[in-house]
Amino acid sequence: DQSRSCYTGKSLPFTGYRIENQINLKSWNQEYHLIYCNDNKLIYDQSLNSSIPWAVPFSFSNTKKSSNSNILVLARRKSFALREIPLFLPNTLVGALFCHDEKGAATHDDSGIPRRQSGTPLVAENFLLYWSELNYKLDFIVHIPLLGTPSIDSKRYNPQIFNAHFQQDWDKFISSSENYTYSFDSRRTVRKSVDSILGIVDYSMGKIKRILGTVPSKSTILWKLIILSKVLTIEQFNSLLLKLDRVLSYD
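and the corresponding structure tokens:
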């Protein structure tokens, strides 16, 4: 059931957007998907291809010729805008999902997906809460949750990452174009952080090679971390995640 991508494990049904990484364990091809859920039911699933289109407007609709297409923009905070690997500590405010209404007055598109005028928080999810399916081609597909919005219909939602003072302007410093200025060579920083991440994860995999055996060379960083989570203790794995987050962090 594809609606498993909508389950959050909370008592209230989820209505909102989620971004997940889908990995084919046969070909090791991977895609990022943006999905929309309504009361824990999958309404629409759109492939974002092999990377998340940060700061790039795109149409989100299951009607090819919709007169009121949802134009969405995914944007990160300045502190995450250079992070090429979508790895974040759970419950971290990563950025926002912005909606741009081309027609002005409409509140829904032709497919029934609601349109929101203001930004919605994008919060990191626990990527270890993944699930697997056997598709019609008999390929195993792993669905890894990465980011999600608060449940749109839930009046009880009160994100702990915002204090009372900042709840109204939480997105004040998030640019939908990610047009941020840095005081250092951002390209060099990105290359260095990615190389460091790959080195740390591969080193950790090497230490437990006797237990795991050979891991496919095409495995993604996220999949390797999922494998490590099965072998390391909770304390060891959390320590590894914190270390990776520090490597990817910058001012």
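(Above: one complete record from the training split.) The CA atoms of residues 93 and 161 lie 7 Å apart.
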